[in-house]
Amino acid sequence: MDAEEFRTRGRQMVDYVADYLETIGSRRPLPDVTPGYLRELIPNTAPDKGENFNNVMADLDRVIMPGLTHWHSPQFHAYFPASNSFPALLGDILSGGLGAIGFTWASNPACTELELVMMDWLGKMLQLPSHFLYSESVTGGGIIQSSSSESALMALLCARTEVIRKLQKHNPDMSKGQVLDKLVAYTSIESHSCIERAAMIGLVTIRVLPSDDHGALRGATLEKAVKEDKAKGNIPFYLGACIGTTTRCTFDNLKELGPICTDNNMWMHIDAAYAGSACICPEFRYILDGIEHADSFALNPHKWLQVNHDCTAMWVKDKDLMEGAFHIDYYILRHVNNGVRMPDFRHWQIPFGRRFRSLKLWFVMRSFGVSGLQATIRKDVSLAKHFESLVRADSRFEIVAEVVLGLVCFRLKGDNNKNERLNQLIKEDGRIHMTPSKVKDMYFLRFAICATRTQEADVNFAWDIVQAMANKVIAMSNGITNGFTKHG
Amino acid sequence: MDAEEFRTRGRQMVDYVADYLETIGSRRPLPDVTPGYLRELIPNTAPDKGENFNNVMADLDRVIMPGLTHWHSPQFHAYFPASNSFPALLGDILSGGLGAIGFTWASNPACTELELVMMDWLGKMLQLPSHFLYSESVTGGGIIQSSSSESALMALLCARTEVIRKLQKHNPDMSKGQVLDKLVAYTSIESHSCIERAAMIGLVTIRVLPSDDHGALRGATLEKAVKEDKAKGNIPFYLGACIGTTTRCTFDNLKELGPICTDNNMWMHIDAAYAGSACICPEFRYILDGIEHADSFALNPHKWLQVNHDCTAMWVKDKDLMEGAFHIDYYILRHVNNGVRMPDFRHWQIPFGRRFRSLKLWFVMRSFGVSGLQATIRKDVSLAKHFESLVRADSRFEIVAEVVLGLVCFRLKGDNNKNERLNQLIKEDGRIHMTPSKVKDMYFLRFAICATRTQEADVNFAWDIVQAMANKVIAMSNGITNGFTKHG
Question: What is the value of ipTM here, to two decimals?
Answer without folding.
Answer: 0.96
